[in-house]
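Lab notebook, bench 4. Still working through the backlog of constructs that have no structural model yet. Next entry is a single chain of 116 residues. Request: give me the C-alpha cells for it.
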Amino acid sequence: QTEQTNAIKADIQKLRGELEASGTTAENLKNQLFSKEEANKKLMQEIGSMNTECDEQDKELRAFLMQQTQQTNVIKAYDEKQMELVGMLSKAEQDEARIAKELEALIQQLAEANEQ
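Model written out:
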C-alpha cells in the first residue's frame, strides 16, 4: 500500500508539474495574444492615418486636375479665337487685293476716258 501511495503521490506530483507547465504556456499564449492585439491596434491607427493622408492628397489632386481642366479650356478658347482672327485677316487680305484690282481697273478706265 505504501508503494501505491507513493505511486499516487508521484502521479500527483507529475500532474502538478504538467499543470504548472500548461499554466505557464497558457500565460505565455495570453501574453502573445495581448501583444498581437496591441500590434493590430497600432496597425489600424497607422492605416487610419494613411487613409486620412490619402484623402487629403486625393482632394489636392482633384483640385489640381480641375485647375488644369480650366486652364486647358481657356487655352482652347484662345486658340479658337486666334483661328477666327486668322480667318478674318485672310478675308481682309483677299478683300484688299480685290479692291486694289478694282481700283486699278477704275484708274485704267479713267485714264482711257481722259485720253478720249
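Notes after review: The mean pLDDT is 92. The first helix runs from residue 2 to 115. Flag for follow-up if needed.
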